[in-house]
Write a structure and sequence with these properties.
- α2 runs antiparallel to α12 and α7 runs parallel beside α8.
- The strands form four sheets. A seven-stranded mixed β-sheet has the order 4-12-11-10-7-5-6, sandwiched between helices.
- The radius of gyration is 22 Å and the shape is globular.
- The chain contains 16 helices and 16 strands.
C-alpha cells in the first residue's frame, strides 16, 4: 500500500476546496506590540499585527513577564508531569483560586488549553448526568462541538441565539436532565448571547447552563469576569469556561463552578487526569494578568475606544464592515480566493498581517477578515489600515460602498 498517497490526496482536497492553511512566520516583539517581524521568503520584515487574540496586549505587560521570569528562575520550566504524578505546583493552586474568585464560584480547574477545557469539561459533565440531553447553540466553537460529540449523550442544536427555538426544545425534552451550552461572545460575528434569557429558560425548565466566556474574560465586566459579570448573571450560570491565552496573554483554559462539579470533573475527566499540568511560570504569569485586570480598567477602556474608532474609520472609507456590538471587527469579502489574496496583498504590499477566515470557520459565501484592534493600535495605524484595505479592495475588484453612504 502507498500510504503516502492518502495524505497527498487529503491535501489535494483542501487545495481544491480553497481550505489549505498557510501560516506566517512571525516574531512578536515585547514592548513594540502590535509590531512584529515577519520572516518572509525574501527575509525579515517589520509588520503590524491586526488579528491577534492577545486582545489587551497582556502578553507583553511588565507584571506578567516579570512573574513568568521570576517563577521560571525559582521553580524551573516544567510541571514535572500530570498532577496525578507530580502533584499541584503551588502557582497553579494560586491561579485556580484567582479564577474561582474572578467568576464568583466555589472552585476552578485549569486545563492545558481552552479547547481542552471545553472538549473535556462538557463531555465529562454530560456523561456524569444520567440521560442528559445537551442543547447547543448552532454557532458554538468547534471545541464545544467536540465536547458535545464526545459526551455520547443525545443532543439538540438550537438556532443561534433563538430563544423561542431553545424553549421549544426544552419543552419537548420534558423532565429529563438538560445541559444548555453556549458562548457569551461569538468571535466571528462579534455578537453576544442573551445570557439572562437563557438562564430564565434554564430555571423554568430545570436545566444546567454552561457558558464559554473565552472571548470575553478580561475584556468585559468591572473586574474582567466577562459578559456574565457585566450583565450581572454570574450567580445564574452554573459553569463558566474561559481561557488564559487571549485577554490574559498566556496559555491554558479552565472551568469554574460548584465545588462538587469541579471535584467531579477533576476526578473523572481523561483530558485532565492524563495530561501534564501547566508549568509554574505560565501559571504565575496568568495569575498576575488576572490580578492586574481585576483592578485596572485602563486597558479595557482604551481597547473599546480603539475598536470603536476602527469601525468608524473603516466604515467611512466604504469598506463592508459587518455589524458587531463588541471588539470584533469583521470585514466581509465573500469569496475564499479573494479573501486569501486580500491578506497576501496586505502583508506583502502594506506590511499588515491579518489571517483570512474561510470555511469551515465561517459559512461559504461569508469569508471575511477578522480584525481585532488592541489598546496599542494608535490612530495612525488605524488610518493606515483603512488606506491599505481600500487599495486591496480596488486591486481585487471587491465592492466598496460610496463614502457618502458609508458616512451616513
Amino acid at each position: 500500500m502507498l500510504y503516502g498517497s492518502y495524505f497527498a490526496q487529503a491535501l489535494d482536497r483542501l487545495h481544491e476546496e480553497r481550505r489549505y492553511r498557510v501560516f506566517a512566520d512571525l516574531e512578536r516583539l515585547a514592548g513594540r506590540f502590535p509590531h512584529a517581524i515577519w520572516h518572509s521568503p525574501q527575509g525579515a520584515r517589520d509588520v503590524v499585527i491586526w488579528c491577534s487574540n492577545d486582545y489587551l496586549g497582556m502578553g507583553q505587560h511588565p507584571k506578567v513577564v516579570a512573574a513568568m521570569v521570576e517563577t521560571a528562575g525559582r521553580m524551573g520550566t516544567g510541571a514535572g508531569g500530570t498532577r496525578n504524578i507530580a502533584g499541584n505546583n503551588h502557582p497553579l493552586v494560586e491561579l485556580e483560586r484567582e479564577l474561582a474568585d474572578l467568576h464568583r464560584k466555589d472552585g476552578a480547574l485549569v486545563f492545558t488549553s481552552g479547547y481542552v477545557s471545553n472538549q473535556t469539561g462538557i463531555a465529562t459533565i454530560a456523561r456524569l448526568i444520567p440521560n442528559c440531553l445537551i442543547l447547543s447553540d448552532a454557532l458554538n466553537h468547534n471545541s464545544m462541538i467536540e465536547g458535545v460529540r464526545q459526551a455520547g449523550t443525545e443532543k439538540k442544536i438550537f438556532r443561534h441565539n433563538d430563544m423561542a427555538h431553545l424553549e421549544e426544545l426544552l419543552v419537548a425534552a420534558g423532565d429529563r436532565p438538560k445541559l444548555i451550552v453556549f458562548e457569551s461572545l461569538y468571535s466571528m460575528d462579534g455578537d453576544i448571547a442573551p445570557v439572562h434569557m437563557i438562564c430564565d429558560l434554564a430555571e423554568r425548565y430545570r436545566a444546567m447552563t454552561y457558558c464559554d466566556e473565552v472571548h470575553a474574560v478580561g475584556m468585559y465586566g468591572p473586574r474582567g469576569g466577562g459578559i456574565c459579570e457585566r450583565d450581572g448573571a454570574l450567580a445564574r450560570v452554573d459553569v463558566v469556561e474561559g481561557t488564559l491565552a487571549k485577554a490574559f496573554g498566556c496559555l491554558g483554559g479552565y472551568i469554574t463552578g460548584s465545588r462538587e462539579l469541579i471535584d467531579a470533573v477533576r476526578s473523572y475527566a481523561p483530558g485532565f487526569i492524563f495530561t501534564t499540568a501547566l508549568p509554574p511560570a505560565i501559571c504565575a504569569a496568568a495569575a498576575a494578568a488576572i490580578r492586574h485586570l481585576k483592578t485596572s480598567n485602563l486597558e479595557r477602556e482604551r481597547h473599546q475606544d480603539r475598536a470603536a474608532r476602527t469601525k468608524v474609520v473603516l466604515t467611512t472609507a466604504g469598506l463592508p464592515v459587518m455589524p458587531s456590538e463588541t471588539h470584533i471587527v469583521p470585514v466581509l469579502v465573500g469569496n475564499p480566493e479573494k479573501c486569501k489574496a486580500a491578506t497576501d496583498l496586505l502583508l506583502e504590499r502594506h506590511g499588515i498581517y491579518i489571517q483570512p477566515i474561510n470555511y469551515p470557520t465561517v459559512p461559504r459565501g461569508l469569508e471575511r477578515l477578522r480584525i481585532t484592534p488592541s489598546p496599542y493600535h494608535e490612530d495612525a495605524l488605524i488610518d493606515a489600515l483603512a488606506a491599505a484595505l481600500v487599495d486591496v479592495w480596488e486591486t481585487l475588484g471587491l465592492p466598496l460602498h460610496s463614502r457618502a453612504a458609508a458616512a451616513e
